[in-house]
Amino acid sequence: MFLQRSAAVAAIGIPAAAADDRPFSTLAPAGPAAAAIAEVWWWMFWGSLVVLALVCALALHAMVRNAERPAPFGSRLLVLGGGIALPLAVITVLLFHGVRSGDAMRPGASGEGAFRVEVTARQWWWAVRYPDVDGAPLFDANEILVPAGRPIDIVLESEDVIHSFWVPRLGGKLDAIPGKTNVLRLEADEPGIYRGMCAEFCGAQHARMGFHLVAMAEDDLQQALLERAAAAPSRDARGASAFERHCAECHSTDSRVGAPATGPNLAAVALRRHLIAGWLRNEPGQLRRWLEDHQTIKPGNHMREMDHVDDAELDAIADWLEGR
After folding, report:
1. How far apart, in whole angstroms, are the C-alpha atoms of residue 58 and residue 13?
2. pTM for this entry
């Protein structure tokens, strides 16, 4: 199954360079919204250098000039120019570019042509819902598949406290607030894997509430979504029965059905590149490790203790979910 998953990742054409060595750098923009934000940053950087140079020059001039010679600039000019005109000009330029960069992350009035995906924040993971995949909703978690080169509308909600959705290389952050729906417009210029995180402190495991946004070519995206829609654990009776006893109250293994309670949908867990909201790589043995030591790996998470489950049943659950 892991070889199959590796082959599938290679087949959809995601370049290795997508795993950028600066995954959270806002100065390595990979989309129009992030580019607008980076442009504001550079305006502020170079502008601040100009102001610093001017202040240093004036200070140096004040130290070395002959006090008996009249000053080349009157105090009135310095106050009006340096104290009013210059700050007003700088603030006006920053306001213009700031409004433009913020507008780049607003959804269009009609939303036509945008890919829509619904993301619900929970402590401490992300529920993902695609409204229409082959005529029905598709449920997933912590990994968001989107098209490259096309606007994406992320519909944000929260089930508990205030969270904040942020993919630094694609745009700014937007809060997910209980009882309110916000929409964030993003776009990835090229296929790749872009790391995201919760940017609003939301509890003990805030730092481990990450996710991955995977941008693909349109055809590859449709294939990947259909693959996840058809995903299901193996038919091993032992693993299925153990899962039903210990896990089914909180987790669903049907990709077309949302989780019954507070746990992520696990239908396509074998296809995900990471586990535990982006915290662990989805490699052999990691899911089994999570089942046994989840409170050590992510202290305070809401999953029930599995101390009462023997090793054989934990092995069976892990193998069943991984399709082995």
Report:
1. 56
2. 0.82
